[in-house]
Amino acid sequence: MNFKNTEIEYDDDLKPIDMQPLFYPKTMAVIGVSQNKIGGIKYVIANDVSGYMQAGGKVYPINPKYKELYGYKVYPSLFDPEVPNIDLAIIAVPAAAVPDVVRDCGKKRVKFAVIFSSGFAESGNFDLQKKLEDAIEEAKRYTRFIGPNCLGINNPYSHVSYYPGMASAPGNVSYVSMSGGNTGRLTTWLVTQGMGINNAVSIGNSIDLTATDFINYFREDPKTKVIALYLESVPNGRKFMKALKAATLKKPVVLWKGGQTEVGQKATVSHTGGLAGSYEIWKSMAYQTGSFLADYFEMFADFVTCLSLDYYLPNDENVAILVCGGGISVEYADMCIKAGLKVPELSKETQNKLAEVFPSVNVSFRNPLDLGEYGYVPHYFDKALRIVAKDPNISSILYVREAERFILFQDVIGIPNMDQLTIKLLIESSKIIKKPLFCSMSPNGQELEHYEPRFNFKVAMLKNNLAVVDLVPHACELIKQMVRYKRYLDAHKNNSSKY
Amino acid sequence: MNFKNTEIEYDDDLKPIDMQPLFYPKTMAVIGVSQNKIGGIKYVIANDVSGYMQAGGKVYPINPKYKELYGYKVYPSLFDPEVPNIDLAIIAVPAAAVPDVVRDCGKKRVKFAVIFSSGFAESGNFDLQKKLEDAIEEAKRYTRFIGPNCLGINNPYSHVSYYPGMASAPGNVSYVSMSGGNTGRLTTWLVTQGMGINNAVSIGNSIDLTATDFINYFREDPKTKVIALYLESVPNGRKFMKALKAATLKKPVVLWKGGQTEVGQKATVSHTGGLAGSYEIWKSMAYQTGSFLADYFEMFADFVTCLSLDYYLPNDENVAILVCGGGISVEYADMCIKAGLKVPELSKETQNKLAEVFPSVNVSFRNPLDLGEYGYVPHYFDKALRIVAKDPNISSILYVREAERFILFQDVIGIPNMDQLTIKLLIESSKIIKKPLFCSMSPNGQELEHYEPRFNFKVAMLKNNLAVVDLVPHACELIKQMVRYKRYLDAHKNNSSKY
Fold this sequence. Notes:
The structure is a homodimer. By secondary structure, chain A is α/β, with parallel strands linked by helices. Chain A has three domains: about 15-145, Rossmann fold (3-Layer(aba) Sandwich); about 150-305, Succinyl-CoA synthetase domains (Rossmann fold, 3-Layer(aba) Sandwich), CATH 3.40.50; about 320-490, Succinyl-CoA synthetase domains (Rossmann fold, 3-Layer(aba) Sandwich). In chain A, about 40% of the residues lie in helices and about 15% in strands. The first copy, chain A, has 17 helices and 18 strands. Chain A has helices at about 20-25, 40-50, 100-110, 125-140, 180-190, 210-220, 235-250, 260-270, 280-290, 295-305, 325-340, 350-355, 380-390, 405-415, 420-435, 450-465, 470-490, and strands at about 25-30, 60, 70, 70-75, 90, 110-115, 145, 150-155, 170-175, 195-200, 225-230, 255, 290-295, 320-325, 370, 395-400, 435-440, 465-470. Chain A has a six-stranded mixed beta sheet, with helices on both faces. Chain A has a five-stranded parallel beta sheet with strand order 2-1-5-6-7, with helices on both faces. In chain A, α5 links the parallel β9 (about 170-175) and β10 (about 195-200). The two termini of chain A are about 25 Å apart. The model of chain A is unreliable at about 1-5 (pLDDT under 50). At the A-B interface, α5, α8, α11 and α16 of A face α5, α8, α11 and α16 of B.
């Protein structure tokens, strides 16, 4: 999907803050380093092993108690003459000391600060929360703050990192998360499959800069193709909705809302301290703003992965299902229909064309399609794919390629490198088909010998912009939401240019 | 869960057929072998490579056109003097010839026959279907038939196999499936994770022997711990329900119904030819018979895997969630509540005991529990598990162990072999706890180096009867259905002894 540049006049709510010094800082200060390896010092180590320092970035560890820690020179104060202007400060001091350090950041004219420390509203310390809010209110004229109770920035381009050895590789996903753990989960998922991130930002309780600010920034960021959000609450629902509405006209936004139930919401209070609000309201907000909505991590990951590729949006709910096997054809049809999709019977013309290619034993061409044993042969499958895609009743295609069985098939069918051949044919066909295609690998075997070909196939597919989903119900839900997004864009693109 | 022997008087509907000659045949005939490797000859090869022949089983390939095929001696006819009494025949002739071969089987007093051939009701050939039904009606006095349009038997004990190289290993799952593909999927899933099957039976259109007959047999079979069913339709709903009711009093039955939607049902017609009936009726039947109900393959596989272990049934919906991380605690709470479970706040006593073990930074003990960084340490986690299990409000526990991070933790925490230590502690604790425990591995990393430790951990866990689920929503649904099953058993065990 290529989005045309829609001319929008942005009011102040939507104007992006210049976050260049946050994502590409020339200088960093880490305030509150100590011998405790899970304290501030881990930021120093993280930005050493990440390559940030090697690329010329300067890190100034700060604590008056130390001259040196783990081989790094430590400075007594942010105001030490040797400490230059600071683009990004990490605040890693005990909670009670944070408000003063926040004020110091303002005085020093630090551009951005990540408050790693926790122990505020999320721990029931409302007095301290109030003191922190007051300090931020004073300082934010000069310094903008991320957190508290967060990890900060993971940027593979500038090599800024929040954890030693955290997965990071260049990509086009910009991710904003109120959970540090969930920040790492999606990043690791993407990076270890050959994908990557443009930015992953753990924002924690987000007193000053909120998800809204990051959405506005990533909306205009040409390196961001999809915006992924894990949020538990937002401080200003109206501004947040405006930001979503403006962003989704330019790129897809995938939201995973933590606290979809009353118990989940209670848990968010002790996690990030915000008031979550009813999930019904969030759902309705997602619909009204053209946002994607995922229920849990694995679904979220499948959505973000597919939307970070080049893709087409389906015109409607009509899906063709191409598999080899009667049982799986029934299963995928059930999953599509349960998700609210349609699996219409193919036209007689399409069915006749398929019958010319495939022997008539143990096959079904009506939809779902059971291509039988011949469907395993790449060239036969490719023919079927092209024939089905031409059917005017079909808007997207869900199909199976069992990479774990390629080696077996290679022997039986006598075609070497079935994985590469399959991908080659899919690349060529997808250029002609111009409809969304989703591959399931229908995994059964769990041993390394089964996993490895699946993994290699998936990585190669994704690298070539061919969508693969790990669980078919996720594909069905994604197709349904892509249709909704298409309709949203059709309705809003030419409608309004003012927000 | 140990099931007491409930004394039940069985009427004729529930009397099991003696299937010993089917599952442990001394002699097999394969009728209709040819050079076509995907035809009947594959049964001959399958039972050679499976070890059936090596263990003394005799296979008689039959076709008057050949004297020998692929090194196997071929006999001209079932009635050839060299062909002895046959326990199990495979019928792999063209559809039109099947009725005559069926009659031949009866004449020869073959005990069981698998009709591999397809091309009957499922292909719209209703005349031929009628002829086949008539032939079966005549012959079934002597021979009982499985199929048509099926694969037959996979038994790791007798080594009977339906496909060369099909996964097979001894276990306690007895599986009956109307889809050949789905038969292989679950079997492969189990076997490649160190589990196994007692029997996997692909029954196809099941004109003579139906799922009901197999349920009645496996109910009384001491080697069957759980009965797994993939069904699209049943010919006699009343008898089927009776069979389920009788079986679930002795062991859990997990049903995956293909054709849950109108389109799925249509697809079942061209797959196995039966009339599927509304899913609402199937659901209500599952509730009324104490059966488990899974929606799709991965859920089915997780259910069957966990129910094939030794386990306790939860008393009620109250679940404790033990994780390390705020975001994942919110997620799992959301998933539990959405599935209809409860995540009650732990008692003050439990919370106080946990506070004695864990430092108070970034943790939450109310439920869901976020154990923070210390929760990664096996001994700390184990203490938490035992404390939480004692809480009278808690009936089952859902927890996370991230095997992919063990190697990293080993270095940081300084504990070698974290996987083995974790399992050792879990084995000891689970003996004391006596409540159902479900482990999620919260997979993120996808590379082999991440997959391998997860896979090894899962295999070792399952081997030690420790339940692991691949997707948390499946665990939530399983717990809910286990509660339902517990209540069903409590209500019915002493109620009625006559069916």
